[in-house]
Structures are given as C-alpha cells and as structure tokens.
Specification:
It is a single chain. A hairpin with a 5-residue loop joins strand 2 (41-43) and strand 3 (49-54). The termini are far apart. The strands form 3 sheets. The chain has a 6-stranded mixed β-sheet with strand order 2-3-1-4-11-5. A 5-stranded mixed β-sheet has the order 8-7-9-6-10. It folds into 3 domains: 8-103 and 194-223, 3-Layer(aba) Sandwich (D-Maltodextrin-Binding Protein, domain 2), CATH 3.40.190.10; 105-192, D-Maltodextrin-Binding Protein, domain 2, CATH 3.40.190.10; 228-294, Alpha-Beta Plaits (2-Layer Sandwich). Helix 3 crosses helix 4 (133-142). The mean pLDDT is 91. The radius of gyration is 22 Å and the shape is flat. Helix content is 27%, strand content 32%. It has 8 helices and 15 strands. It is of the alpha/beta class. The structure holds 1-O-pyrophosphono-5-O-phosphono-alpha-D-ribofuranose and zinc ion. 1-O-pyrophosphono-5-O-phosphono-alpha-D-ribofuranose is lined by residues 16-17, 56, 170-177.
Length: 300
Amino acid sequence: MEYSEQRIKIAVQKSGRLTDHSIDLLERCGLKVTRSKDKLICYGENMPIDLLLVRDDDIPGLVSDDVCDLGIVGLNVVEEKRLKLEQEGSKGMFKHIFELEFGQCRLSIAAPENVQYDGPDSLENTIIATSYVSLLTDYLTKNSITAEVVFLSGAVEIAPKLGRADFICDLVSSGNTLRANALREVAVLLESEAVVIQTLAPLGDEKQALVDKIIQRLDGVLKVHDSKYIMLHAPRSALPQIRALLPGSEVPTVMPLEGNDDKVAIHAVCRENVFWETLENLKAAGASSLLVLPVEKMLA
Ligand code: PRP
Ligand code: ZN
C-alpha cells in the first residue's frame, strides 16, 4: 500500500490491558482493520486511518512528536509524560480530548502488609520503588515528604521482598497483584482510565475533518454503551466473586435452579462489552452455561 501523509495515524497499545478495548472501540466507530498483533501497523481497509501498535509508555511521545495524530492510552501514562516534560522545562505537544470509560485503574502507594502506615508522613526517609517517577515525585513534593524514589521499569511489586524498597507506587486495578505480593494499598495518587489524546500540530483541513468525525463517532459509541445481557449458572457460594467479575453490571437477578439447592442462575445487564477473558474468568470462578446476548433497547 502506498503510504499517504493524508492518512490518520492512531497510536494504540500493542499488547496489554487496553489493546482489545481500544481496537474494539475503533471498530465500533466503523473502522475495519486487519488485526495482526505482531505487526507494528494495522492498515484501515475502509477509511484512511491506520493503527500503530506500540508500547503504551511511548504513546504520548509519538503523539507529541506528531508521528501519530491521535493516541489511546491510560491517563496515568499521559500524566506521567506531561509532568516529566514539565519537570524538564518543556511542554507536551498533545491535548487530552476525552475519557473512554474503560481501563479504569489507579496509581497508588502500597505497603507490605506488616508495615505500619499512618498517612504520607510514614513515607519520610523511606525508599519507594516505581515506574512513575514524575507522578510520585510530584506527590511527595506536594506533601513535603523527603523520600528516595527508585525507578524500576517492571516487577515493581517484588521490590520490598527483595529489600530494594520500603514501599511501592504502582498501578492497581483488581488488586490481585498487590494481594499476591502481600502488599496493601495505602494512598491513591491518581484515578486513571483510557483517554484519547491528539497532537497539537496543525493537521490540515482534510485530516482535521476526519479526526473530528472519528471523535464524534467515539462520542456516539460511548453514549450508547455496548450493553450485554449475560446469563450463567453458578454455585451459590461463588456469588460475590462472580458479581465482582461482571463488567459494569447493576444488581443481578439471582434465581434458584429447580432440583439443585447449591446452584443458582444469574442474569445481569453489563454496560460494557463482555470479552472472552471475562467469560474465562467467570468460568474459573465456578460459572457454567454462560450465555452473552446483545441488548437492543432498555427502559430503566
Ligand atoms: C499493572 C501494574 C501491576 C498490575 C496491577 O501493570 O504494574 O503489575 O497492572 O493490576 P491488578 O491490580 O489487576 O493486579 P500493567 O499490566 O498495566 O502493565 P504495564 O504497567 O507494564 O503497562
Ligand atoms: Zn506499560
């Protein structure tokens, strides 16, 4: 394919928690791409829009440097980059357009279970490991805390066990990683979710019109929400765990199963798409006979 400068380039996380949702969202905006996880570029088949699959940490830089016109990335990554540039005395060449209502997580400080924490003062003169040096440094400065910030690019949660840090500052979503490492969340620095960012570089009329169209469609997709009706059977005892796994659901309907006192049928409306991964997690939690249906109309 001949590469034209008139094509819109959107930076998307290559593989991680935002990947499927990001591509799914763009497809719901009418974009058809050939998905290929090992390729750097996915070409749009029906619109002059291509996806660049990259590491999430690189997305703000790619948009800022005008390599990509738009990016879909966690606010945590955007804010870390923005602060880093600010601390270096430069300005990020990207603007934050809007929230995409998925990829919710928070950047938090976590302490080993046996270590006391009575507020930010407990961090004084300690060592804190993180991949989010700028956001953590900013938090410490605002709270007038002096602490040593150690940068680790990954596996931050094992730093206390290895004796490399007293506390960690990392992303928490389900909390499973913290629990598995005998850590507990003690302070939230930032609430995050996936956002769209756009380059500040002028795009030219044709490209800007296409970007505006995509943004308008994204907005439309988000307003409708991709609700699903999910039905499953589960042991009564697994009910709390199953409820926690249902994406964006309200109180589910729980019904007895004829001739089986230990099992119940659960029906719930999920206000988010239900991915295979969610179904697999539900199955692992004890669910069976899983069925997912699209919701056509709803009247609350
Ligand atoms: C984050 C973080 C933890 C994990 C927490 O990494 O570093 O390892 O997720 O999630 P949990 O609370 O659901 O267990 P992520 O997978 O986002 O990868 P990245 O930081 O390398 O982008
Ligand atoms: Zn990352």
